[in-house]
Design a protein that fits this description.
The complex is a heterodimer of chains A (329) and B (115).
Chain A: H1 3-28, E1 37-41, E2 47-51, H2 53-78, H3 84-112, H4 126-146, E3 172-181, H5 183-206, H6 209-227, E4 230-236, E5 239-244, E6 251-254, E7 259-267, H7 269-272, E8 276-278, E9 283-287, E10 291-298, E11 303-307, H8 311-325
Helix pairs in contact in A: 1-2, 1-3, 2-3, 3-4, 5-6
Chain B: E1 2-6, H1 13-26, H2 39-46, H3 50-63, E2 66-69, E3 73-76, H4 82-99, H5 104-114
Antiparallel strand pairs in B: 2-3
Helix pairs in contact in B: 1-3, 2-3
The chains are: A alpha+beta (329), B mainly alpha (115).
């Protein structure tokens, strides 16, 4: 059996098994569950909302349907199982999605089991949620590992003309340093942080726990937004280095030895699905702002693009460095 | 911006870095008013100390090429003086000629032939 179809079989069997668990377990336990069930727990750990059995049953299936839909779409649209990077991404989606769906169903059923009514359902604190998220992380890691073995066909892409390489003299060190930033995104991030501080202060004065939680969420959102509001990009003997955020941390390095070619290209957020880090592994765009992007292709055919000013010079230098490396390897 | 360092250049490193930035500004890849990457980023890319880059940038500020603004980083004020750029290129040309064993008079002859 060829490897893509074996992967398909494994993914199909996995989907069927998880769906079977999500359907069979609540049906088997139905006689021991209250009607309606406790379905939501407040910050105190006590149940504060209920759902009828069938609604709860459908909800857990819907939670699982999302990763399955993503995997099916990816398979149909990109024939994703042929490429290791895609298989791994799909493994993470299916593994983490399954662990999350089964985990939330399991803690919900366990809390409701043999209780006379939903008000008497067992408490679920942050530990239970932590457990579910840990299970999802473990599921994702397992899924990634499961996607590893097998052939790695180079991604087939339309041939593009790479930027002509720069001629480099051996006794010179040439580097290219550039960056991209987006004022609107920076402004949004700063606004989130300011709102978070204001909420935290206000929440502290009136002692409202909800305001503090909201402030925390806003602060995290603001930091994430700031982190993709600007990037520094440089090309040198070490390869391509992309440094994220105002503090230029963390950094991602693509060594010269792993790269095949580079080019400059215009890309817009509407084409790649928005701002930030977009796309599946093997075709990723780090979209800071619309316009010039430096696009590099690695040896297995995967592409990484990053918004950056003056991308043509960066691409020309990278191609020059790659050409200089070629006779040695 | 593209920066090139000559690995055999005997001059102090900060002069070489200043030369590289001067050439980049003169070539027009960074226009007046545009901001330069931070000294930290330039230093990381060139593989030199950040203080070396800062010294080079200060020299270029004193030359009138760059402008330091509090909170806004370093930006290009105006392209370097053409005569100054030519003088430095001529210096490099003479050094190169010396490496091949040609005297300055012969370089002048070559220039006359070309013009």
């Amino acid at each position: 059996m060829s490897h893509p179809s074996r992967s398909l079989l494994v993914a199909g069997a996995w989907t069927a098994t998880v769906t079977g668990i999500l359907v069979a377990v609540p049906l088997l336990l139905r006689d021991r569950l209250p009607e309606p069930l406790a379905a939501h727990w407040g910050p105190s750990g006590r149940p504060d909302r209920s759902l009828p059995f069938w609604a709860s049953f459908s909800l857990s299936l819907a939670v699982w349907a999302l990763p399955v839909a993503i995997a099916v779409c990816a398979h149909l649209r990109w024939n994703a199982l042929r490429h290791r990077a895609h298989r791994r991404t799909l493994g993470i989606v299916l593994g983490a999605g399954a662990a999350f769906a089964v985990g939330t169903q399991a803690i919900t059923l366990a809390a409701n089991l043999d209780r006379p009514g939903w008000h008497e359902a067992g408490p679920l604190g942050w530990r239970a949620f932590l457990l579910v998220f840990a299970a999802a992380a473990a599921g994702g890691a397992l899924g990634r590992a499961a996607g590893g073995p097998g052939p790695d066909e180079p991604l087939v892409r339309e041939p593009v003309v790479p930027q002509a390489g720069m001629r480099l003299r051996p006794d010179r060190r040439t580097v290219w340093v550039s960056s991209a930033s987006n004022g609107w995104v920076t402004g949004t991030g700063v606004a989130c942080l300011v709102a978070a501080v204001a909420l935290a202060v206000a929440g502290g004065i009136v002692a409202a726990g909800v305001a503090l939680v909201a402030a925390g969420v806003l602060a995290v959102a603001g930091l994430v937004v700031l982190w993709v509001s600007t990037a520094g990009v440089r090309v040198g003997d070490g390869g391509l280095v992309i440094a994220f955020g105002p503090f230029r941390r963390p950094r991602r390095t693509l060594p010269l030895a792993t790269l095949q070619s580079a080019r400059a290209e215009e890309r817009r957020p509407s084409e790649v699905g928005g701002w930030g880090i977009r796309g599946l592994a093997g075709s990723v765009t780090i979209m800071i702002r619309a316009g010039e992007c430096l696009v590099v292709r690695d040896l297995s055919g995967g592409e990484l693009a990053v918004s950056v000013d003056d991308a043509a010079h960066g691409a020309a230098l990278l191609n020059g460095l790659i050409a200089r490396r070629a006779p040695v390897s | 911006m593209l920066l090139t360092l000559d690995l055999n250049d005997p001059r102090p490193l900060h002069e070489q870095v200043a030369g590289a930035v001067r050439r980049a500004v003169a070539s027009g890849t960074v226009l007046p008013g545009q901001r330069l990457p931070s000294a930290r980023e330039l230093a990381d890319a060139l593989g030199v100390n950040a203080n070396t880059v800062l010294r080079a940038l200060r020299d270029l500020r004193d030359e009138g090429v760059l402008e330091f603004r509090r909170g806004r980083g370093v930006s290009v004020l105006r392209p370097p003086d053409g005569r100054e750029v030519l003088r430095r290129m001529a210096r490099e040309l003479l050094d190169e000629a010396e490496r091949y064993g040609h005297r300055p008079e012969e370089v002048i002859e070559i220039i006359k032939e070309l013009s």
